[in-house]
Amino acid sequence: MSAIWYECKVKYRKTDETGNQKVISEPYLVDALSYTEAESRINEEMAAYTSEEFKITNIKVANYAEIHPFENADRWFKSKISLLAYDEESGKERKTNMYFLVQANDVKEAYDNTVETMKGTMGDYSIPAITESPIMDVFPYFSGEDDKLEQLEKFNALKASKPEVAVEVEDHMEFVAEEEAVV
Question: Are 28 and 40 in contact (CB under 8 A)?
């Protein structure tokens, strides 16, 4: 069964290096079976990530065919890959597009990493576009089975090797106190 990835936008207060607090909205990617599970997983992951109050503002299905983390990379890039196939009935060449999320430091490295992930592909393909993704982090699902444990350790090692970089967006969101929220 292939993974279904959900992009979750999370809004929270973040303290910068100067001690100023800003409300930022950042997208994260989680592997889940449903919107409900995606919401539960992002709540769990963000509770461990931040001690501040946060708000999930959007959850949508992401159209990534595969996710590829790489060591010592600090950003995620969306690679568009066009698979080329010859249609014998019509006699025409057909393109099928799919998207990979690849970790890299710049566009050139993202291209190289995309080519690396496509090694061993039997068919023809092209890479018409690579763009930097706003995704801050990826949280795959691991069941805890013994054969998956090695995969989890590898993913966590790769994820831990990337430095944290946050894109700050000015937003004037107000949090409602719990007493005020109860009506």
Answer: no
